[in-house]
Amino acid sequence: MALPFFIVTLTHPTWDAAMACARALPDDALPELRLDLFPELDAARLVRDLGHRCLVSCRRASEQGRFEGDEDTRLTRLRQAAEAGPAWLDLEWELEPPTWLECLRPELKVLRSVHVQPGVFDLEARLESLPDGDAFKWVGHAARLWDNVRVKTALNRAKDAGIHLSAFLMGPKGVAGRCLQRAWGGAFTYVAPDDGVAAAPGQLKLATMKKWGCHLVTPQTGLCAVMGEPVLHSRGPAFHNQRFQQEGKNLIYLPLECGDAHEAAEALDSLEVLGLSITAPLKETLPRLLGLQGPLNTLWRRDMTAPWQGANTDAEALWVALEQLAPGPILLLGNGGVAETTRLLLEQEGRPFMQISRLELVPLEAIQAFSPVGVIQATSLGMKAEDPMPFPEHLEAAKPSLEWAVEWIYKERTAFSGWAQKAGLEVVEGDSLFESQARAQSARFMELC
User: Fold this and answer.
1) Do the Cβ atoms of 383 and 416 come closer than 8 Å?
2) What strands, in cross-sheet order, belong to the sheet with 189-191?
3) What is the pLDDT at residue 68?
4) pLDDT value at position 449?
5) For position 62, what pLDDT does the model report?
6) Which CATH topology does 6-211 take?
7) Which residues make Cβ contacts (< 8 Å) with residue 365, sequence separation at least 6?
8) The whole model's pTM is what?
9) What is the 3-class SS of the chain, one letter each residue?
10) Do domains 220-311 and 314-435 have the same CATH topology?
């Protein structure tokens, strides 16, 4: 059988859980039976349990696996599985094919794989001298977003040569290559089970890859992205990809993790990004490097030769929210990029405000005298579940006059929003701000095609 596009590594804690997942997989997803993850179970039985429709591997520790034992024992375990009749068998790139393999082919297909060490990129050299096999897998490590471009070049070359290859990079900076594998000429890619953990850093769940449309991309698909650090948790890909698909737009939106403006600018051109959402810490530094005045959270360009255009849809969303809230003095918490966006809007609208931060604390008496009717939480506190509420003493000092609160963090509940609700304030949650600003971004991105 030909390899389907998705290979799902069964990483479940029990075989029963792994079997339940395998039974539910669609036709375009093949389970990978990692014998090293189920060392106590009979290898042949596992293959039969899966109805022979699986890819069998047994990963050594040097190949990101958990097999403990000598090489003869490992090959014996692979042989037991192979003789039970799986569809595919994974053998390491440098391994001399064992003599018992010959009598099992061509019914048994062979995937040759290699995991190289960080800092090594020998894919192009390996394509010059392929071992005997029906398909090939090369896995490296991403230190920069630009590293994905080297993979793209090799994948295109392999496709032109008729080589059935998957090549990608581990780590958060390698997510782009995993998601764009099909557009770049890759024949298949690895994903985590929806009810299991990732087998490697940067591996996404099957449902996530399908919802984003990674199996539908072509070389003509336009790339939009969110950049910042961290961004793998971002709700942007789920939001924008759904809208792109509903509107029939040949676009995909991916998380590109990066905290350095120069690396980000390099990746914008090398990965041919057309639309961009910017989050911390790049909202001011990246636009400035591109010759735009920040803070901005949205960039787009018609094509690779067109100049960048920019907008701050965060400010647009906040303006809409403020129009629905009681007028009067405002207490602004924080001094980062989101706080700067807020400050500029308040100044533009002529709204009186008092700003406090860790570097610029204000006496409690001054806050009481200011009598704010609203408070805007623009610090990063709330990104993590364990984050405390910002400036609790200052908020308590302001509470007697407060009528409303705005939370910038895009989560269902933070310590701040919980405090505001308990205080009886009208609360604008980060979720609603996200929806508002993301709709404005998506409208601009969808004009690109």
Assistant:
1) no
2) 165-170, 135-141, 109-115, 88-92, 55-57, 29-34, 6-9, 189-191
3) 86
4) 85
5) 79
6) TIM Barrel (3.20.20)
7) 397
8) 0.91
9) CCCCCEEEECCCCCHHHHHHHHHHCCCCEEEEEEHHHCCCCCHHHHHHHCCCCCEEECCEHHHCCCECCCHHHHHHHHHHHHHCCCCEEEEECCCCCCHHHHHHCCCCEEEEEEECCCCCCCHHHHHHCCCCCCEEEEEEECCCCCHHHHHHHHHHHHHHCCCCEEEEEECHHHHHHHHCCCCCCCCCEEEECCCCCCCCCCCCEHHHHHHHCCCCCCCCCEEEEEEECCCCCCCHHHHHHHHHHHCCCCEEEEEEECCCHHHHHHHHHHCCEEEEEECCCCCCHHHHHCCCCCCCCEEECCCCCCCCEEECHHHHHHHHHHHCCCCCCEEEECCCHHHHHHHHHHHHHCCCEEEECCCCCCCHHHHHHHCCCEEEECCCCCCCCCCCCCCHHHHHHHHHHCCEEEECCCCCCCHHHHHHHHCCCEEECHHHHHHHHHHHHHHHHHHHC
10) yes
Q: Give the per-residue pLDDT at 356.
A: 97
pLDDT of residue 63: 78
How far is 1 from 21, CA to CA, in rounded Å? 21
Token pair for 388: 């405390």
354 touches 378 (CB < 8 A): no
Q: Where are the domains of the chain?
A: 6-211, 220-311, 314-435
Judge residue 369's burial from the number of C-beta atoms within 10 Å of its C-beta, 0-12 exposed, 13-18 middle, 19 or more buried. exposed
Q: What are phi and psi of 55, to 5 degrees?
A: -105, 125
**Is 314-435 in CATH node 3.40.50.920?**
no
What is the C-alpha separation between 90 and 33, in angstroms, rounded?
A: 10
Instruction: Write out the CATH class of domain 220-311.
Output: alpha beta
Residues of the chain short of pLDDT 50, as ranges, are none
The identity of residue 85, as a single letter, is G
Q: What is the per-residue pLDDT for 384? A: 85
